[in-house]
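thread: overnight batch results

M.L. [08:02]
morning all. the overnight job finished for the chain we discussed friday. pasting input first so we're all looking at the same thing
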Amino acid sequence: FRRAHTLTVLFILTCALGYVTLLEETPQDTAYNTKRGIVASILVFLCFGVTQAKDGPFSRPHPAYWRFWLCVSVVYELFLIFILFQTVQDGRKFMKYIDPHLGVPLPERDYGGNCLIYDPGNETDPFHNIWDKLDGFVPAHFFGWYLKTLMIRDWWMCMIISVMFEFLEYSLEHQLPNFSECWWDHWIMDVILCNGLGIYCGMKTLSWLSLKTYKWQGLWNIPTYKGKMKRIVFQFTPYSWVKFEWKPASSLRRWLAVCGIIFVFLLAELNTFYLKFVLWMPPEHYLVLLRLVFFVNVGGVAMREIYDFMDDPKFHKKLGQQAWLVAAITATEFLIVVKYDPYTLTLSLPFYITQCWILGIILVLTWTAWRFFIRDITLRYKEIRRQKQEHRHEKDRCLSNGDGHSSILDEQNGNKLRERKL
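M.L. [08:03]
and the structure it wrote out:
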């Protein structure tokens, strides 16, 4: 039935598109016709995928919604592959087909400069530095971290990613002037106010979702209109709730998986800034916002698939399809950045930053070796030593009671008899 329904929808859509093309006279603009043909092809593919793609772990508000974003992931990955195989000049020119205002070099804004919170030299507005930093990206930071918390569902992981990204901005501000910010912009406005408040609100929402009663009733079985409206609103909440318990220190496998998740998150965050830099997209462009909306939808599904694969590998024997696509998209975006501007990426880090990163990597590797190798060997050695001491104590007690010699002989004779039988 589902396959027949799909063919019907595809047939109707194809007829509608064909009818539209027959009614109007085809323009002689090759670029316009190419764009229109590409958009029509994408619509047909999305229509097919929404009805035929494999369902993911989420079913609310409807499985077709998540199948749609899965197909958008495929389209976006194909678009990235196309951009990757173009020259730098052609790739930037191609962005003009999406928006004629693109393809123009953009000046990078430096958020550093005067870092005085109170500037006595400006008598009109001494706090002008603070007001200059309060732009549209402040609420974007807050809502971004609110949604990331709903995806990760762990306070420690969110805080680690938030703080690590600020360290990355410190480390890479010699490559992108956009990373140059004042110290209070890094730690007070970003980490504490925007990111911290978003994480706090996200954890409160998660707490409410975990306490909510998940008992569903059909819409037409609810007698009151108030109950019907409440049921419609709750359609956009999860069907059931799964609490994420990452437990990174429980095993080496989970520790490496959590480190990999943090690495991919940070790489995707960096790709946002580097893609704007190499493709000449202004930060406020709608394509940047659409990319963030895209990652919010596909990232939640990917995180659930990763957690299911880690938590119950016997039932979930392989990683989910959306998780693989997110990893592939992140890697392809990074390859585009490497190809389009290798000079910026190869700018050497300052010596003191290199020392800090080497020290941090050594500390992480040392803790990993101690926690999952040296500590286990030490605990095993202590357990064997404790068992030997208990055995020696039992032997001394038997000898002090006077019957140790006979019990030892009986034990030796029993061992000899068992050896003969074998």
